[in-house]
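Following the same procedure, backbone shapes were mapped to integers, as reproduced here:
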Amino acid sequence: MKAFYRSSLALLKLDKVAEAEDSAARGLAIDPESKALLESAKKIAERKALLERAAARKKAEEERVRKQNMVLSAALRARQIRTRKTAQPPDIEDAGIRLVPDPLSPESTIEFPVVFLYPMDAQSDFVKAFSEMNAIEDHLSYIFPLPWDKKKEYTVEGVECFMQTVSGGLIKAGKKLPLLQILSGGKVEVVDELVTIHVVPISKTGKYIAEMKARKTG
């Protein structure tokens, strides 16, 4: 009896609940009135119930995420928005493409994390939630003026925006267009759930385009 009791407790401490339950049951089959084994069996049952509840919550969460991803994928396909994942995605913490307000409704609005790159000055800004209904100028209007822009080159009217195409070229992104209109159609793609927009002063667009072409051919 002591062996069954000690075995059940030791197995419980190792979280081997099924084995602990079996050991306690074997002992109680010999002595159903053993207070020590009954107490051990109670602890095992409590731990088993706790683990079952945790497993049920995990399964429900996994199912919720699976459904959300399925609905989001369908929404992206319906909008003809291309996406791609790489082996080494950037760290954008908890940001990601999502449907709001209801992640399980295809009629919800898609929000994207967006990084504004200022390639001529090696600077950037990050927008965690950029609605597909918003235009680039909606965000640049509050981001500008830039604290490091001593020459005052970056104004909403004084910049042009570009995105890289799927083939590696450039496409001009209209500042007044909804993001959805820019992303749909398959010319550009969202890589690792992050939309990348290059913001260049109009006076430097010629130099920027030349540098990008040279980089592509080089």
Summary: The longest helix spans residues 35-78. The mean pLDDT is 95.
